[in-house]
């Protein structure tokens, strides 16, 4: 008797401070609408508990990675990130996710897309969402992938093997320019903001101008209805100014409140993604905030303790995130030379996720599609 379910091979991975199922692109429907319905069913959306899927009922744990070999000569792997809404039937492949990116190479090695080298393995990965390229290095002693090590990142318990990510050409990844409005400082509803995209579109605002210190707990900020209403009003206007159009149903731009650091970092942050306060800060969000901290006349001036590029510690609710930023002044303004950082990742389980067969017939449908293409 048929179970009425389709089994799809997948691996649940933690990447940085996020987690979600990873799939080979060849194991998912090629039709985008069908693929999105499958991903919604796999994670259990829309439902605030995601009780009928493998999602974690939080934006940080309702993410998907889709990986394939690249046909490009200068790239090894291609990665498509999908942010699956928890309480809406919505899948967004517009933004990047640097945390999930950290799990791409380990997943690819485990699934046989990439051969591990002795000592360490460096792989060039193209994020299809925005065209961003990163060189990712994982530890592979004696040619075998390891997740065990002494590297600790805030927001993740224990220690693990380090994963080095060096981003290339991240400026304007979504908006087309580092500063979409051409300004280092804009004012929206009487609140000074820096609208910036160095891998992630972010609106950076001083926390004190919104009536808070910026050091409140995540739970306190999530319960602050007036603050969230004000942030959303500013976000909708900022989206238009950044060339993103109507962002009411989009997860970008992120909203990052900044305040003076208290733990030896460059700046303190509280980030909304976009309506829930982040437990820490996203990878490319941290890169973008760090960039704003070294821009002259940005909203961070007078708040951040940074005046030049280099290793910068960005404080967040769970601790800190260090970004190694290399910038220079070019004829057309600031030029991003390098943005590098360390993350960790781990395989949590591998097997198959089941979705209703009525949504997609799975492997049988793939075979029929491929036969039709061949004909």
Task: Characterise the protein shown here.
This protein has 7 helices and 17 strands. It is an alpha+beta fold and 375 residues long. It has 2 domains: 188 residues, Diaminopimelate Epimerase, Chain A, domain 1 (Roll), CATH 3.10.310.10; 140 residues, Diaminopimelate Epimerase, Chain A, domain 1. It has a 17-stranded mixed beta sheet that branches. It is globular and about 60 Å long. The two termini are 32 Å apart. The model has no long low-confidence stretch (mean pLDDT 93).
In brief, what are we looking at here?
This protein has 375 residues and is α+β, with helices and mostly antiparallel strands. The protein is built from seven helices and 17 strands.
Low-confidence stretches: none
Q: Which oligomeric state applies?
A: single chain
Number of discrete domains: 2
Helix content: 10-25%
CATH superfamily of the largest domain: Diaminopimelate Epimerase, Chain A, domain 1
Strand percent estimate: 25-35%
How does the major sheet shape up?
17 strands, mixed
Query: Helix- and strand-based class?
Result: alpha+beta
Any idea what the radius of gyration is?
A: 21 Å
State the name of the first-level CATH class of the largest domain.
Alpha Beta
Could you tell me the mean pLDDT?
93
Number of helical regions: 7
Give the termini separation. Answer: 32 Å
Order of helices and strands: EEHEEEHHEEEEEEHHEEHEEEEH
- As for the CATH topology of the largest domain, it is Diaminopimelate Epimerase, Chain A, domain 1
Question: Do you know the CATH architecture of the largest domain?
Answer: Roll
How many runs of DSSP E, i.e. beta strands?
Answer: 17
């Amino acid at each position: 008797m048929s179970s009425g379910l389709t089994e799809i091979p997948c691996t649940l991975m933690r990447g940085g401070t996020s987690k979600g199922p990873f799939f080979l692109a060849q194991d998912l429907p090629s039709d985008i609408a069908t693929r999105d319905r499958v991903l919604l069913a796999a994670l259990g959306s829309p439902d605030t508990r995601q009780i009928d899927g493998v999602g974690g009922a939080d934006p940080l744990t309702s993410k998907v990675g889709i990986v394939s070999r690249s046909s490009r000569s200068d790239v090894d792997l291609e990665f498509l990130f999908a942010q699956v809404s928890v309480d809406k039937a919505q899948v967004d492949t517009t933004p990047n996710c640097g945390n999930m990116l950290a799990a791409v190479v380990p997943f690819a090695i485990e699934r046989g897309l990439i051969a591990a080298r002795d000592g360490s393995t460096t792989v060039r990965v193209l994020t299809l969402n925005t065209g961003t390229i990163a060189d990712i290095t994982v530890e592979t002693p004696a040619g075998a992938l390891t997740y065990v090590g002494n590297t600790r990142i805030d927001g993740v318990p224990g220690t693990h093997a380090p994963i080095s990510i060096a981003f290339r050409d991240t400026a304007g990844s979504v908006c087309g320019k580092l500063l979409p409005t051409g300004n280092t400082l804009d004012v929206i509803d009487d609140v000074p903001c820096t609208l910036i995209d160095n891998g992630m579109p972010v609106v950076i605002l001083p926390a004190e101008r919104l009536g808070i210190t910026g050091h409140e707990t995540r739970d306190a900020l999530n319960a602050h209805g007036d603050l969230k209403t004000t942030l959303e009003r500013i976000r909708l206007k900022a989206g238009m100014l950044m060339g993103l159009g109507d962002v009411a149903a989009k997860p970008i731009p992120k909203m990052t409140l900044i305040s003076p650091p208290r733990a030896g970092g460059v700046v303190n942050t509280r980030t909304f993604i976009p309506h829930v306060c982040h437990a820490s800060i996203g990878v490319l969000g941290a890169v973008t905030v760090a960039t704003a901290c070294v821009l002259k006349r940005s909203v961070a001036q007078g708040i951040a303790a940074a005046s030049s590029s280099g290793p910068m510690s960005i404080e967040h609710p769970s601790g800190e995130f260090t970004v190694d930023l290399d910038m220079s002044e070019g004829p057309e303004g600031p030029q991003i030379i390098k943005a590098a950082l360390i993350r960790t990742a781990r395989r949590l389980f591998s097997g198959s996720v089941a979705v209703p067969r009525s949504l997609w017939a799975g492997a049988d449908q793939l075979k029929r599609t491929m036969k039709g293409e061949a004909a």
